[in-house]
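DM between two lab members

TW: hey, do you still have the Winged helix-turn-helix transcriptional regulator entry open?
JB: yeah, one sec
JB: this one, 146 aa:
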Amino acid sequence: MTHPSDTRAYFFKIDTTIKKIRNALQKQFNDAGFDLTVDQWVVIDHLFRNPGISQNTISEMTTKDAPTVTRIIDLLSQKGLSERRMADSDRRKFLVYLTEAGEAKYHEVLPVVSAMRRKGWGNLSEEDYQHFVRIMDSIYTNISQE
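TW: and the structure you got?
JB:
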C-alpha cells in the first residue's frame, strides 16, 4: 500500500521555501549595505544569544559542518564582528564572542530580519505556528532516527 508521503514532495516544498526566504533576506541585506551573508547572520544571532560558545557548539546549533563554521567565524573576525578567546577551563579550546561592533551589527540587522519574518508569516495565527513547529519537529525526529 502506498503511504501518502510517497507521492508528496514535501522535501521539495520545504527546500524551495527555505531558498526563497534566504534569497529574499540576502537581497534585503545587500540593499541595506550590511556586508553580511545570511549564514554570517545566523552565526551572529547564535553568538548574541549564547556568548562564549565553542565552534563545535555553533556547528551543532546551525547544522553546518566544522570547516564552514570556521570559515564564517574567520570572516566575522576579519570584519571585527567576532573574536576567539581561550577557554579558562581548557587552554586548547577557543570560545567565540561577538565584539562590540558585532553586537552593534546584530542590533542593526535584527529589525530587517524581524520584518522579513513578519512578512513571511503574514496572517498566519499562533495556532498555525504551533502546528508548523510540531510538524517540522516530527519530520526532523523521524529523519534523525536511525
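TW: got it. The longest strand covers residues 82-86. The beta strands are 53-54, 82-86, 94-98.
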